[in-house]
Specification:
By secondary structure, the chain is an alpha+beta fold. The protein has two domains: about 10-45, no CATH class; about 50-94, no CATH class. It is about 25% helix and about 15% strand. The strands form two sheets. A three-stranded antiparallel sheet has the order 1-5-4. A two-stranded antiparallel ribbon has the order 2-3. Helix 1 packs antiparallel against helix 2. The longest helix is centred in the middle third of the chain and has 15 residues, at about 50-65. It is elongated.
Length: about 90
């Protein structure tokens, strides 16, 4: 078993795509003031697309860096992860 800590916050949003993740924020929760517009720089946890984006980013990272690791490492990332959780069954422990 394994878990990637803060998975969504590790996925950076390209500058060209940040407009699609804009939000308004009222300082001190005061809705009578003008809101400030912000853009997310990392992926958000609550979006419907978040699990798919996280899976894509993790698998792309594994494929792009496969030459740096044993094939079993890449295989584990590609086959045994769901979003940020890994569950792998093996015949023996090392």
């Amino acid at each position: 078993m394994a878990d990637i800590e803060a998975m969504f916050h590790q996925i950076q949003i390209p500058r060209a795509d940040r407009d699609s993740l804009r939000f308004l924020w009222w300082r001190n929760g005061n809705l009578h003031e003008e809101p400030t517009e912000y853009k997310m720089t990392a992926h958000i946890f609550v979006a419907v697309s978040s699990p798919s984006c996280a899976n894509f980013a993790l698998q792309k990272t594994a494929k792009d860096n496969a030459h740096l690791f044993d094939e079993s490492v890449t295989s584990t990332v590609l086959r045994d992860f769901y979003v940020d959780d890994c569950l792998k069954s093996v015949e023996t422990d090392l």
